[in-house]
Amino acid sequence: MKRVLAALAFAALAACTPAPNTGGADGAKAAVESVYATAQRNLGHVVTSFDEIPFTDDMKGLLARAEAAATQRGEPFIEGDVALNCQDCFTVTDLVIGPQTGPQREPAIDGHTWVEAKFKLNDDEERTVLWDMVETPQGWRVDNVLSDGLNLRTEAQSYLTDTNPPPP
What is the mean pLDDT of residues 86-101? Predict the structure, then answer.
């Protein structure tokens, strides 16, 4: 009888214990939160480098080629901090990271999920940055960043396809 009661107690405990977090949207959110922790440490000192953002291998390669093309032209590829969507920013307040919200939502590609970061820069400039996240064997990775007209993937591709760069 004691064994039966112990088995029932164990079964009840197992049924009430939440399943381990295997990633999902919470993992994508945690990856973006990590980017913002880095961006906030860098704030006022240096921009958040591409090496500090966990990009997919495909995006890393694309960004490296775009930066090389920009260097060859003698111009910067991206000026400012991609994570914070700013140059010369000093404070970040009211940071909220979670699922994409709003009436005009960006459609997600199969296997991707959007994570939205909303915050204020310098206490009064509202920003929204969308992170296109993909779960990989290495964890959640960034496959694109959208913010105020910036589509990072499109911008990088344009550096590789633009046959008429501006004159120096």
Answer: 91
